[in-house]
Amino acid sequence: MQLDMRLSRIIELAPGIREFWLCREDGGELPTYSGGSHVVLSLPLPGGIQRNPYSLLGDPADCNKWRIAVRRQEQSRGGSVWLHDSAQEGQALKVSMPANLFPMARLGRHHVLIAGGIGVTPMLSHARELARLGESFEVHYAHRAPEFGVLADELRTLAGPDLHCYVESRGETIDFSKLLARRPLGTHAYLCGPQGMVEAYHRIASEMGWPDTHVHSERFLAPPPGAPFTVRLAKTGKAIEVRREQSMLEAIESSGVQPPFLCRGGACGQCEMEVLDCDSSLLHNDLFLSQADRDSGRKIMPCVSRVTGGCITVNL
Amino acid sequence: MGIAFRDETFRDTFTYRNSDEGIRRFPFPFGLDQYMYSVNIEPHTAGKPDSVYQYAFDIDEHYIAECRDRAITLEKDPGRCISLPHMMDSEWDVLELIMTSLSRDYPEHFALHRDGEQWTWTNRPLGIEQAFVFGNAQTLPYPPFEYITRQTQGDFVIMDHRDGDLWADAGMITSQADWSLAFDVGMSFKEWHGPVPRAHEIGVFDRALKYLLMLQLGNPVRRLNWTMTVNPRLDTAPETYPDWGPDRTSVTLDNVAEKVHLRVELQALFRLPRSNGILFSIRCYMASVGDLARYPKWARRLHRVLRDLPQDLAEYKGLVRYKPAVVEWLSRLDDGVPVPPGTDPE
Question: What is the ipTM of this complex?
Answer without folding.
Answer: 0.85
